[in-house]
Amino acid sequence: MWELKKEKGVPVYVGIMELILANIQSGKLAPGERLPAERKLADYFQVNRSTVVHALDELVSLGWIVRKQGSGTIVNEGKWGIATTPRTDWRRYLEQNAFSKTSPFVKKIEERLKTHGKTSLDVYTGELPLELIPSFDFPPLSWKQFLEEEEQDDLGYLPLRESISKEIAKEYGFKLPNESLLITSGAQQALFLILQVLLKNGDSVAIEDPSFLYALPIFQAAGIRLYGVSMDDEGICLEDLERTIRQQRVKMVMVNPSFQNPTGKTMTVNRRKKLVELCQKHQIPIIEDDVFGQLSFISSEKIPPLKKIDPENVLYIGSLSKILGSTTKIGWLSAPDSVTKQLAEARKMMDFSLSIFPQMLANMALTDDSYTYKIRKLKEEVEKRAQKVFALLDSFTEWEVQRPEGGFYLWARWTKGPLKPKEWDFFIQEGLLIAPSFLFSEQKDSIRINFSRIDDEMLEALGEKLKNITNKIAG
């Protein structure tokens, strides 16, 4: 009667609940019958008493048992509050929800922003500050004009696809055919479609280590296994990548070669060519995330997209959200025509339709006469902030940094080894909200700073806070 069969993946307290409930429903435990004492049950099940208490508390809340002073725990005699039919244990399902798992450190950052937002420096948030986002004047449009717009098919608004293709050609000197471009609701929707259509549960994907992909729950939710591959100053290490491909039967390689998130590193031209050759050799497609490509401080010749080197084997993801704000939610995916059509068809079946409204606004911004000028001024300001934050961090001997060449992230490594949990809390206490390396990897010695969020007035405060934190860790 009290023999507990522990199932893999089922919390022990849930197993205890199900056993007691089964005994009640089968009649082995009669209404009004007293259950053994908590310590006795713990002995029967070979678990901590707290686990038994947890299970009993849940059954009390469901109405199956009651606790009476001096009488112990008994099976409920009345009908009030009792679930007369078996109930779905939604908690077990929710515990498997990959999207609900938030890092305790991130929760602390969010709490700090709520309670002490004005006294904190937020260099954690992964977007431009509002004052830097370019502003455009749009002509007045009636609702009827939106309804009458007919230039959208399954791939998205045709004028926007044409404008994106022109921008890529102007920036990098190669063309993305309109029929190969799929407009998405941001870069993450492009990734989601790839996972749903081109991969299956249990497939292996190689990514850079560290990588922002490590933090995304969509991989866990889809059952995709991620394998991190180390990086050096030129980008992803190809020897390690080939070893991983062979050992883990990798189906896809995902990289962020330009101004990588979180390290800010830029893959060299030579490494890009060799990466393409390696993946061609193993017949493995590459997913290229180029969302920071429009925020380059260096010549475009130094950052040729992998898509330009190998148009057929590379799926290319871009986005306007990094320069026009996260609420824009406009991204794109370029793939071989057959793949693009399959992805578009899958999105249609999932009913992930894309509103014409943000697409028309994005196209108006891209075709605005002032667009080129405003993006150039944005890059100049972001680069200026990058150099000042770099100079500040570089003045600390305890932190190792690289000069940013684009994007808006700076990666600083603590030179004295991994940081302890209490040392990470110094950042929260001081109100310097950074992204710790353990969000992107198993590394625990580095921080990511969004330098675009630090203007001249904030620079001194950044220096003071970092000085205090450095002294606390070192001391």
UniProtKB/TrEMBL annotation:
Residues 10-78 form the HTH gntR-type domain. Keywords: Aminotransferase, DNA-binding, Pyridoxal phosphate, Transcription, Transcription regulation, Transferase. The keyword Metal-binding does not apply. One of its GO terms (molecular function) is DNA binding. InterPro entries: Aminotransferase_I/II_large (IPR004839), HTH_trans_reg/aminotransferase (IPR051446), PyrdxlP-dep_Trfase (IPR015424), PyrdxlP-dep_Trfase_major (IPR015421), PyrdxlP-dep_Trfase_small (IPR015422), Tscrpt_reg_HTH_GntR (IPR000524), WH-like_DNA-bd_sf (IPR036388), WH_DNA-bd_sf (IPR036390). It comes from the Bacteria. The keyword Transferase applies. In the C-terminal section; belongs to the class-I pyridoxal-phosphate-dependent aminotransferase family. PANTHER family: HTH-TYPE TRANSCRIPTIONAL REGULATORY PROTEIN GABR. This is GntR family transcriptional regulator. It comes from Enterococcus rivorum.
